[in-house]
Amino acid sequence: MKRISIICLLICSLVMGLIVMSAEASTAYGNQDVQKEESARYTYFSNTSATFNISGSSASWTFGAKKIQPYDRAVLTAIVYKNSGAIMSRTSVYYNTNINDSKSLTLTAHGTYYVQFTLKCYKDGVLKETITVTSKTGTY
Fold first, then answer.
1. Which CATH number is 29-139 given?
2. pLDDT band at 118 (very low <50, low <70, confident <90, very high)
3. Reported pTM
4. Which of these, 125, 131, 130, lies nearest to 72 by C-alpha position?
5. Could you please report the per-residue DSSP string of 27-41?
6. Distance between CA atoms of 16 and 26, rounded to whole angstroms?
7. 13: which residues sit within 8 A by CB, 6+ positions away?
8. Which tens digits make up the pLDDT trace of 59-80?
């Protein structure tokens, strides 16, 4: 009986560990997926994340990045794409802070959409780092 209990406990622990790992890699957000990138390879930012959600005719997205080193200026460009090409572009500038950006858009035509985020980080007037994250696609 002890062996069966121990085996059941080990199986439960293994399953829970897999569920937690899976949840960290991709978490449901509306009807789309959240992309989270542990960006250890970057110098100025970590924990970049991008979300994209379509609900009815409304699309919304967010982008986040945690500052890990001081920088002078960061330029975030978000471009919304429909299967036929870019339909909207938005640029935001940040000065030595964490990045938290969100926006929504009313969709006027049916199709498949996604957002591509490009974060360019400058230090002493020189481009030091470029991070590009593409969201999952959504359909309207």
1. 2.60.40.10
2. very high
3. 0.69
4. 125
5. EEETTEEEEEE--TT
6. 15
7. none
8. 999 999 999 999 999 999 999 9
∠ CA(92), CA(33), CA(135), 5° rounding? 40
Query: To the nearest whole number, what is the mean pLDDT of the chain?
Result: 79
Rounded CA gap, 118 and 94, in Å? 13
> Could you tell me the two tokens for 85?
């090409």
Give the CA distances from residue 20 to residues 24, 38, 50, 89, 140, in Å, rounded to whole numbers and listed in that order.
6, 15, 19, 35, 30
For 20-125, where are the E strands, in sequence order? 26-29, 32-37, 45-55, 58-67, 73-82, 85-94, 99-106, 112-123
Q: What is the pLDDT of residues 19-49, one digit of tens each?
A: 433 333 333 333 444 444 444 567 899 888 9
- Report residue 88 as tokens: 């909207």
Cβ(49)–Cβ(34) under 8 Å? yes
Q: Is residue 102 a contact partner of residue 62, using CB atoms and an 8 Å limit?
A: yes
Q: What is the pLDDT of residue 52?
A: 94
**The dihedral sign for the CA sequence 85, 39, 124, 72:** positive
Asked if residue 54 lies in contact with residue 32, where contact means CB atoms within 8 angstroms, the answer is yes
Domain boundaries, the chain: 29-139
